[in-house]
Design a protein that fits this description.
With about 1000 residues, this protein is an alpha/beta fold. The protein contains 30 helices and 31 strands. The longest helix has 30 residues. It binds zinc ion (3 copies).
């Protein structure tokens, strides 16, 4: 036998080998993988694999089908995908049916703009057709974008609010509200956009700063002032009001004061003014009222009488300039803050909080029942007209003296000038305040009373006639519904129900409670074309309105066949049941309601229209997941529909996500140049990076994004990818069925790695269970970068590369790597859908492996963590940190280059000495520290012995150059290099490995 080297040393090193590339190339590889999934029909395969297991339903809040997706929409859908996929991987049957909101103002406005002047000549039917086409096209684009993000669902069969079936269901559920007596028609002030000429829902209004003219105006008292106080007998008395909307003054029908506040009547020349006592000084100063002293300085006005507001109840003033009474009324809504008589409804609370600091106003509130919510309520109580002399385009109607035909916001200044000329204006100035604006056109909105359909929040829904089993009318003797639920108002029902729902984060319940405490009746009618018509008829003879559930169901059946377009293609009598007659006058001629339903009603019915009508789903849903704006919107309307139709919330858990902001915490706008466009990120880095960004941020708070932040995410991705690649590369040649090493025969560090894996699995499952995806990310990231890359892989690299391929110790490491890679793929599959499947594909052949990781389940923690082992290794790694620090110092000082050039001597106290001793004895320690030689000495160390300053003060590390020669094969230094005749340049360990390789050849 020749003594020459028989093997080429380089070829005896087990270099990693895998098809899992270092460079992800996601922008190219993702579309290919999507195509593969589509071809294998992955979604259906998953459904089939979960058939019969417990269901988990996330119900999709439908985005508007009117624009391309942006980062916020992408984030919303990705988070939902996380929920659905993680539950699927926990073994649930978790179908996902995406939805699209297709009706509504945004789409109609867009079509308006496109059609321009042509629209006025078009029939409602042609407009509806144009809207339908527009929504269908937008929906198609969005679908492609969502799919590109890796979101899995029934994309070939989404729910679409403009489908025949959905339109029919919308009408039917409106019928349920009608039957339970929640629906009424009334004139009531609603938010009104004079630009778009439509009523707006609360959710369609946003608040911005706005400058209004603030005016102090005097209204002459016409009742006998002696009725208030004898001291006022025979005096010319005026009540001072304050308002920031002079244009509502022509509609003034009264003045409200607080019954319990003290008011004062004070002198100014020969006139007497009444304001709240607390505000006398402020008003007098502002309006320059009261006497002057000899120097011409103003002195406090002389108060003639003080009295409670209740003294003024039902006395009368005359309008400031019109020949019409203005009634004095008392109401608890009156505040001493200025904002109380602003037109805002939702901000009443805000205004009341502000009152403490803001002392604008007089405590006497100008009341125009047609133009404000509180005004409407008190006006109703005092029997005033709901007078609204403003048309839909915001112009005064012809009966308004002096200002007929003027637009309200332009009329403001004219009214101020007019009042000044008439001498009824005491003071005016510009006033900055928060004011409601239209969410679409951004113009300020007004409050305007129009005939509208409402859903009452406070009427008890007990009017419904339910028969019990004996056919008796239960409503005569009990308030109960069939299921025993007490008849209650929607407000009460909602307030009760929201306590039962689980809100994540928990502040959701307060938010929702406040929402329902304050919300006014739901105005559901819109003066628009593109939507579901309010299925109500009017008798042509007596004008009786027919809102009847059975009639509505009849209409809905027609919608089901022909879509809601039938409302326009058919005559009224073709929509009514045959021979339908007016209950009041017997008439047979009918007209149709022209308003459509609020689009929030449309989406509010989705749970029933979708979940109850598809066999793969069920009502109620487990989870709703949307942004915080939906407390006003979809969470709100869905709850009301659920309560009206099924006496229950349509959801058990409501998750709320934050907004997407830029790195500085500002909202993203294309125009501001700070928007991150998903399609650009996809093109540059891949959808995976957006998904990982979603997972890495805590979505319960606002989520910041920028190019720099995405760069950090990309770095994180690379680390995860490299970790997976190391494992896969070193599994080359490993056959899991043939080569797996049983647990009890594994090397200790491999057993340790699997214990750590078990702990991570436990954490990850727990975080998925709690919808805390950022905790999943952090657990996996730390596991990959610290536990694996920096520790485990670092140590086993030598064994994997230099031991004979089939060596038991190497197989032990591979067994651990295989389990780690398999578990990583499953745990990452929810977030990194593409990469996890790529890992899966590159795992060693296993006949039982599923066609995609997404068909698999999350690994289960087996709980066999060896606590003693984990604690021991925790100490070992702490010692290792100390050693590394010392080595780094010597490297910097030039004593060593690679750590393999070092010999490390440790002095430690008894406890650590005993712990490390076995590793020294079996020659493991040097591989753990990645040095060539180690020495261990027991010493009674005391803190001041110059030991390291870290967590383990009782260690002293000494580094010197290793003895012997460098092995050509493994680069360790050894005094035995040269002892083998066959392999004169390698160490004793490599000689053994080479002999083993030769044997196996
Ligand atoms: Zn508008
Ligand atoms: Zn009639
Ligand atoms: Zn060697």
């Amino acid at each position: 036998m020749s003594t020459e080297t028989r093997l080429d040393l380089k070829k005896t090193i087990n270099l990693p080998k895998t098809g899992f590339a270092q460079k992800a190339n996601l922008a190219q590889s993702e579309p290919a993988r999507l195509k593969k999934w589509a071809e294998m029909d992955l979604y259906r395969l998953i459904q089939q694999s979960r058939a019969g297991t417990e269901k988990f339903i996330l119900h999709d809040g439908p985005p508007y089908a009117n624009a391309d997706i942006h980062l916020g929409t992408a984030m919303n859908k990705i988070l939902k995908d996380f929920v659905v996929r993680s539950r699927t991987m926990m073994g649930y049957d978790a179908p996902y049916v995406p939805g699209y909101d297709c009706h509504g103002l945004p789409i109609e406005l867009h079509v308006d703009r496109k059609l321009g002047a042509k629209k006025s000549n078009m029939s409602p039917l042609s407009i509806r057709r144009a809207c339908r086409e527009y929504a269908a096209a937008a929906l198609k684009r969005q679908t492609a974008d969502f799919q590109r993000l890796g979101i899995l669902g029934e994309w070939d069969n989404p729910y679409v609010t403009m489908s025949n079936h959905y339109e029919a269901e919308t009408a039917r559920q409106f019928g349920c509200f009608v039957e339970r007596g929640y629906v009424y028609q009334g004139a009531r002030p609603v938010y009104w956009c004079i630009h778009d000429q439509t009523a707006l829902a609360e959710a369609e209004v946003e608040y911005h700063q706005h400058t209004s003219p603030s005016v102090y105006v005097k209204f002459p008292l016409t009742s006998d002032p002696a009725l208030i106080d004898p001291a006022l007998a025979g005096r010319k008395v005026f009540v001072l009001i304050w308002t920031t909307t002079p244009w509502t003054l022509p509609a003034n029908l009264g003045i409200a004061v607080h019954p319990d506040f003290e008011y004062s009547a004070f002198e100014h020349g020969d006139e007497v003014y009444i304001v709240a006592s607390e505000l006398v000084e402020a008003v007098a100063a502002k309006c320059d009222l009261g006497q002057r002293d000899n120097n011409g300085d103003r002195v406090a006005p002389r108060v003639l009488a003080r009295f409670h507001g209740s003294k003024l109840d039902r006395l009368e003033c005359r309008h400031a300039w019109l020949d019409r009474p203005s009634l004095l009324m008392v109401g608890e809504h009156v505040t001493l803050g200025g904002e109380a008589d602003a037109e805002t409804e939702l901000d009443v609370k805000d205004a009341r909080e502000k009152q403490a600091t803001s002392k604008a106003g007089t405590g006497c509130v100008h009341t125009a029942p047609g133009h404000g919510h509180d005004d409407f309520v008190i006006g109703k109580r005092y029997g005033l007209d709901i007078y609204c002399p403003v048309d839909s385009s915001g112009r005064f109607t012809p009966d308004v003296e002096h200002f007929a035909g003027q637009r309200v916001f332009e009329a403001n200044q004219n009214i101020v000038d007019f009042m000044r000329e008439r001498g009824v204006l005491l003071f005016s100035e510009n006033y900055e305040h928060r004011y409601p604006h239209c969410w679409r056109c951004k113009n300020p909105v007004i409050f305007r009373a129009t005939p509208q359909w409402f859903i009452s929040m406070d009427r008890a829904g007990g009017e419904i006639i339910e028969k019990d089993e004996d056919g008796r009318d239960r409503s005569n003797f009990t308030n109960n519904f069939t299921d025993g639920t007490l008849a209650r108002s929607l407000r009460d029902a909602a307030l009760q129900e929201i306590e039962r729902v689980k809100w994540i984060p928990a502040w959701g319940v307060d938010r929702m409670r406040n929402m329902f405490k304050g919300r006014p009746d739901w105005c559901v009618s819109r003066q628009r074309v593109w939507g579901v018509p309010i299925p109500v008829f009017y008798c042509a003879r007596c004008n009786e309105a027919v809102a009847d559930r059975s009639v509505i169901n009849h209409v809905a059946d027609i919608f089901e066949q022909e879509s809601a377009d039938a409302w326009h293609t058919r005559e009224a009598r073709e929509l009514l049941p045959e021979g339908y007659r007016c209950r009041k006058c017997g008439g047979e001629q009918w007209t149709k309601e022209t308003d459509i339903l609020d689009v929030w009603f449309d989406s509010g019915v989705s749970s029933l229209a979708v979940l109850e009508n598809r066999k793969e789903l069920r009502w109620p849903a487990d989870v709703y997941l949307e942004g915080g704006d939906q407390f006003r919107g979809w969470f709100n309307s869905s709850l009301l529909v659920g309560l009206a139709v099924r006496d229950r919330a349509p959801y058990n858990i409501v998750l709320t996500h934050g907004w997407t902001l830029d790195a500085q915490g500002r909202a993203m706008h294309k125009s501001a140049g700070n928007a991150v466009a998903p399609e650009e990120v996809i093109k540059k880095s891949g959808a995976e990076i957006i998904r990982l960004w979603c997972a890495s941020s805590n979505y319960f708070e606002d989520m910041r994004c920028s190019e720099e932040i995405l760069q950090r995410v990309t770095d994180g991705y690379r680390k995860l990818r490299n970790t997976a690649r190391f494992a896969l590369g070193n599994l080359h040649g490993f056959d899991p069925t043939r080569d797996t090493v049983p647990d009890n025969e594994m090397l200790e560090i491999d057993a340790w790695a699997l214990s750590e894996l078990d702990e991570v699995i436990r954490k990850v499952r727990e975080a998925y269970e709690a919808y805390e995806f950022h905790l999943v990310y952090h657990a996996l990231y730390n596991f990959c970068t610290v536990t694996l890359s920096a520790r485990y892989f670092d140590i086993i690299k030598d064994r994997l590369y230099t031991f004979a391929p089939r060596n038991h110790a190497r197989r032990s490491a591979q067994t651990a790597l295989y389990r780690i890679a398999d578990a990583l793929a499953r745990m990452l599959a929810t977030i990194l859908v593409f990469t996890a499947d790529e890992i899966w594909e590159n795992l060693p052949d296993d006949s039982s492996r599923l066609a995609a990781v997404h068909l698999a389940e999350l690994p289960k923690a087996n709980g066999q963590r060896d606590a003693e082992l984990m604690t021991r290794w925790k100490v070992i790694f702490q010692v290792r940190e100390e050693v590394f620090r010392e080595l780094e110092g010597k490297r910097v000082a030039g004593l060593i280059g690679s750590s393999l050039e070092a010999r490390v001597k440790l002095r430690l106290n008894r406890e650590y000495y005993d712990l490390l001793r076995p590793y020294q004895d079996n020659d493991e320690l040097r591989y753990i520290f990645i040095v060539s030689q180690t020495g261990l000495f027991q010493a009674d160390m005391r803190p001041n012995d110059g030991g390291s300053s870290g967590e383990l003060p009782l260690i002293l590390v000494e580094v010197e150059r290793a003895e012997g020669e460098k092995c050509d094969r493994c680069w360790n230094y050894s005094t035995h290099v040269g002892e083998s005749a066959s392999y004169p340049n390698v160490c004793e360990r490599c000689v053994a490995a080479l002999q083993e390789i030769e044997r196996d050849m």
